[in-house]
Design a protein that fits this description.
By secondary structure, the protein is α/β, with parallel strands linked by helices. The protein has two domains: 8-87, Winged helix-like DNA-binding domain superfamily/Winged helix DNA-binding domain (Arc Repressor Mutant, subunit A, Orthogonal Bundle), CATH 1.10.10.10; 96-145. Helices cover 28% and strands 18% of the residues. The chain has helices at residues 34-46, 50-57, 61-81, and strands spanning 8-10, 18-19, 30-32, 85-87, 92-94, 97-101, 107-110, 133-136. The strands form three sheets. A three-stranded mixed beta sheet has the order 2-4-3. It has a three-stranded antiparallel beta sheet with strand order 7-6-8, with no helix packed on it. A two-stranded parallel ribbon has the order 1-5. The longest helix is centred in the middle third of the chain and has 21 residues, at 61-81.
Amino acid sequence: MPRRRCCGLIDDALVCQTFIPLGQSCLEEININLEELEAIRLKDKVGLDQIECAASMGVSRATFQRILGAARSKIASALVEGRPIIIRGGHYLMKNRVFECIGCGNVWEAEPCATGGKHGYEIACPKCGSMKKVKLGHSKGDCCGNSSEG
């Protein structure tokens, strides 16, 4: 059985989630995951080499290469076939996740790459240990595209 895939780290929230070619909205959509978009951004827009991109996303170079290849293939298909692109979901963690404890009012920044099977869902307050917290700042994007923090 293959091991569970690590979440890629994402720097910024999306500006746009949908691209639709003129007159082609009835064709089947191509879905691009957020970590795939981040790979494209880091490699093709920012211009980092693959080792730097992989480090920024918190994945191995081989995993980064697979993510980048999948993203490029999907984008090429969408452009050549005139299909809409929808950007959503995937396996990712937003960087700079800041929480406030409801119990004691402590504010802390969670580590961006949680280990183990919880993927950051069960981040306890480091001061009092409470699981009751609110996320400050961006309202979406903890691991795997979920927006709720327990």
